[in-house]
Structures are given as C-alpha cells and as structure tokens.
Fold these 2 entries.
Entry 1:
Amino acid sequence: MYDNYEKILDELKQHSHFRDLKDFDSKDEKYIYFKGKKLLNLSSNNYLNFADNKEITAEFLDYAGNKYPFGSASARLLTGTLPVYKELEELLATLYNKDATLLFNSGYHANVGISSALNQKGDVIFSDKLNHASIIDGMRLSEGKFFRFPHNDMTALENLLIRERKNFNNAFIVTESVFSMDGDISDLKTLVELKKKYDCSLVVDEAHAFGVFGEKGLGVCEDLGIINDIDLLVGTFGKAVGSMGAFVTGSKVLIDFLINKSRPFIFSTALPPINIAFTKWIIENKIPQTQQKRTRMLDIARKMGSQSHIIPVIIGDNKATVDLCEILFHNGYFTLPIRPPTVPVGTSRIRLSLTCETEENELQILKEKINEMSLVKQAK
Ligand SMILES: Cc1ncc(COP(=O)(O)O)c(C=O)c1O
C-alpha cells in the first residue's frame, strides 16, 4: 500500500523538489531563530512587521480586552456575523469607495471562491500565466472556460480577446497587481483600457500590495488612481496586515452573488472575531502611520532591481538554488528556495522579501554571495 506515493516522494527527493516543514525555534519581528542561529528573515510576508511585534500585540490586547471571542463557532451565513465583521467590511468599502465588501477566511478561499462562482457556463476568464495557484484552482473548479495569457503580455491578451471575447457571455480579466514570485507589477492601466474596449470585468488581486503601495496603503490601484475602474479588488490580511483572512470589494450585485454562490465563503466557519478585530485595528490605526517606512522599503528594493519589496533571484537549477540558500544560512540569512510547481520549470529561485525594518547595509553580504553564485554560473 502507498507504494505509488513513496515512489513519487523519492522522485521529488532526487530532483531537489521535496518539501518539508521546518522546526523553527522562534520568530520576532525581523529575525527568525533556526538550528541555534539568529537569522535575518527574508522569507516572510510580514512586510510591515505587525505579525509578531510584541509591542503591537500588547497594545492591541490592551484595546481589545475580552470583547472579542477566539472562535466564531459558525459560518457567516448562520450565526457567524457579529458586528465587528460588518464594521470591517464597511470600513473597506468606504476606503475603496465601493458598494460592498465581503470577507473571506484567506486569500486562497477568496480567489477560489470568486472565480469558481462568477465564471458560469458560457462565461470566460482571461488570466495572467503567473497568477497565484488559488486563482488557477478557482478557474478549474468553475463551469466556465478560461485562457491563460503570457505573463504581462498585453498584445497577446488583446489578440486573445479579439479571437475569443465574442464567443462568451460574461468575461473577466484576472491579474495580480504585485506578482507574488516575481515581484513585478502588472500593466494595470492597459488592462483597464482592454477591459473597457472588450467589455470585460477586471479582477485584481492585491495580496502583496495591500498595506504596502498607495498613499493610504490600499495597493497599486490606489497608487495609479484607478480603483474606480476595478470591478473586483481582492486584498489579503495574512501578509502586510500581519493577521489572517481576505476581502473582496466591488459592486453590490457581485458581492451579493458571492454571498449566495461562493462555496468557500458559504461552507466554512468564519474567522475568529478577535482576529477580525485585530485586522480592523491595524488598518485603522497602524497602516496610516507606515507611509515613510514603506517608501524606504520600496526604495531599497528598487536599488536591487525590483519594482516591489519582493525580489526574485533566479538561479534556474533546483539544486543550485537549495545550495545558495544553505550558503546564505551560514552567513546569517533565512531564505527559501522556490521551485516548480510554484514557479515554471528551470526558473527556481530565491524569493527575497523585504520588511520595512530591513536595513540596506544588512543586505551587503547577501548581495556578495549572490554575485559569487552568478559568477560561478556564468563560468560554467
Ligand atoms: C497573489 C496571492 N493571492 C492569494 C494568496 C493566498 O492568500 P492567503 O495566504 O491569505 O491564503 C497568496 C498567498 O500566498 C498570493 O500570493
């Protein structure tokens, strides 16, 4: 029994694809403690250092007292909607100037729930090739058709729209704003033009941009002044906010449809009220104070050649990527190898993610080690 699974696992091991869970000793703010070493953590999504900041936790608990339970004990549609959920939804709808907002338990739930519900029989989704697995899974679960266009290739997308749009009823263009594994930013202004020209709805996942980009921290669409042109905007709370959960904001009809038809929303226990309260507290009280730090973080990233705080160091080969992580570990950095299927075959990489506490001079040795590795690669 299970021979086939063992065989697959052995193959994964042979090709440096095997994944395992790490036993960290602890984490605090920008550091992670692992195998007895204190390491600069360059592999978290804790971009604003809210997730494990002792002062923030103490301040929040002081504010929250015992007002918010640790369990919701019900799905939202049953008895799982306490006032704090509605307050967070209303806050986000107001910030984005949209009709309505709906919370999901995670970004994964949100993306699966949106694509699978909205893309009905006779409808179509045009999705960027590098969109997150949750968007892909949502499309796979849907009854509509979907096409994946080459990453950020607006000409290819337009050709696809010319060929296919007329064959479908509702059409959606779906993209991330900051791409999670490449750190580049989608061509959102052109996407807005295309969605208008070809009568599509535009869905933008701001998972890695929410809290980081834009004057108010609302994301890249805020930065570009195009929030009004986005039909559904998704944000997550598990990254810059340092919490858990996600939201989608848009028109009343789309949000009502999701409430009625989105299975990950309907069939899952709501997040704990204490968690919703923390998210709301961070968005209202803490993110507005981070503008300077966020700008500084993005400046450091741009100097390292990235459009965002996510910096891909593409090595190509799985083993060489794992080896570079090991070298960085011995030099005081915690980084992780990102391999297929998370990224396309032959593009294994280290995904560096900065936080607003990362200092430029702390990255000096890391840059040297990466350069050495590139020289070895070129020499081969
Ligand atoms: C672009 C994007 N969307 C959605 C998600 C999923 O969000 P969550 O971790 O809240 O499930 C991720 C997370 O890794 C992501 O990178």
Entry 2:
Amino acid sequence: MLNLERISKTFHAGADRVLALRNLDLFLVESDFLTIIGSNGAGKSTLLNLIAGTVLPTTGCVLIDDVDVTSMPAYRRARMIGRIVQDPLAGTAPEMSVAENLALAIKRVGRGLRPALPRKLRTRFRDQLAALEIGLESRLNAPVSLLSGGERQALAVLMATLVEPKLLLLDEHTAALDPANAAMIVRLTESFVCEAGLTTLMVTHNMEQAIAVGNRLIMMHKGEIIHEVQGHEKQRASVEDLVDLFARRHVVDDELLLERMPEPATEAIKLPL
Ligand SMILES: Nc1ncnc2c1ncn2[C@@H]1O[C@H](COP(=O)(O)OP(=O)(O)OP(=O)(O)O)[C@@H](O)[C@H]1O
Ligand SMILES: [Mg+2]
C-alpha cells in the first residue's frame, strides 16, 4: 500500500550537509498501524514529510497504492493523506468555528474559503463531536482559537479521519498535551484508526505508547531503521528491551527524550479558556 524504496534525504543548511535519511526501505500493507520511535534528529519527521510530499527525497521513490507519487506536489497528495502534528494550533483554522473547520475537512481543501453549512451537515457534525465525549458538540459555533490544546487535537483527529484518508500521518500529536489529554487523544486515535482500518504511521517519544498501539514498530537512528518488531513480538516487548536495543547502538536516554505513558483518562482535563 505504501512503498518507500531506497530513500535518502540530504539537507543543505548553509555549508553543512545533513544526511537525514539513508537508503531507507519501508513497506506497509493496508491497515498496518506503524509506530516510530527514535533518537532526536533520527529522521522521523523527515520520513513523514517525505510521504506527505512537503519534503522531496534526494534519491529513491515513494509509492502509494502502486502509484509513484515521488514528485507529486503535497497539495495533491493532501487529498489522500490525513496529517496531525505536535502543535495543536497547526491542524485547524483558528479564526473559523468548529463547524467550519469540519466542513473544510470534508472537502480536504486549504484554509480560506468559508464553507456554507446546511443544517443537515451541522446535525451530522454535532453527532460526530458528541461521539468524542468531551463536550465539543455544544461548541459548534465557537472559534477554534478558544478551544484547549486537547480539544483542538481531538478536533484535528476527527478532521483528519472524517473523509477516510489512504494514509494517516501522526507526528508526536500528543506530545504538547498534559497526560490526561494525551491519553484521551491516544484513545480517540486508536478507535478511529481501528474502526476504519486506516493505514497509519505514528511518531512518538513515548515507548510504552509505541508498544501498546499499532501492529508494527520501527526504531530509527541517524536516518536508518535499526530495528523492527511486529505482531506477538511487539506485544511482548518492554520499554527496557527497546532502551537496551538503543543502548547497543550507543544511543543515550537524552537523545531519546523518553516520556512516560500517560495514565488512562476517565475524563479529559479541560484547560481554562
Ligand atoms: N529543512 C531542513 N533543513 C536542514 N536540516 C534539516 C531540515 N529538516 C530536518 N533537518 C535535519 O535532518 C535531521 C533529521 O531531522 P528530523 O526532524 O527528521 O528528526 P526527528 O527524528 O523528527 O527528530 P525529533 O525527535 O527531534 O523530532 C536533523 O539533523 C535535522 O536537523
Ligand atoms: Mg520530529
């Protein structure tokens, strides 16, 4: 479904050359849910940006459903890719209302045009927001800028999956949230992904999360995949196993930026407006 073949990416920053990805191969079948962990600067975000088309590879190619999209511009790929990044401000149009953001997500278009909102659509959005169980259904008309970080990321998850994407790319999408909200977003993400069988790549610094979620896990370091586990082996893996594997590559804790898995949330904490 997703095929990355011999991908390399070199960045030129002034006189410096950074080899962000080195001859990387990755193949995902439909409904694979891949978690990605790795040291700081390992190339995780570059990998996701390359799939999204915001970064072009120096060598190699990207295929989605056997179509070579290597040089397809990001705006055209956006129609088949749902994407959420760390910053809750990034995924939504803050000056627009919750309902208007959802309407934009249906069309998978950029920000700017205020879409018309027939009553039927508002009712549908209200039901979909109610299913998130965080009270957003009563805030359809609120500008997104008034929502808390957790509420915005929950909206971003809904927006990214409203029209089923071929691929869902999550780049540390819970990292900026407090533990209760992070747990709520992980729960939502898992339920949306599993329900629709979405093919998903999720970058996280939280090793417990990387083990608990999804069916495959890769470890990256210095632009390479240094280890992969899947299925039963993944379920049985422990954080200590993964840290050990990194230690064998002389990757220290500081580079891994480890976080603890947030406690399961019974109710998301809402930040004051
Ligand atoms: N636009 C760019 N120009 C120059 N160098 C870049 C650019 N983007 C990324 N890099 C470099 O490429 C390497 C990989 O960066 P990347 O952001 O993919 O790492 P990462 O694994 O996501 O790290 P982190 O865990 O810190 O988010 C780093 O050394 C980074 O400095
Ligand atoms: Mg990154």
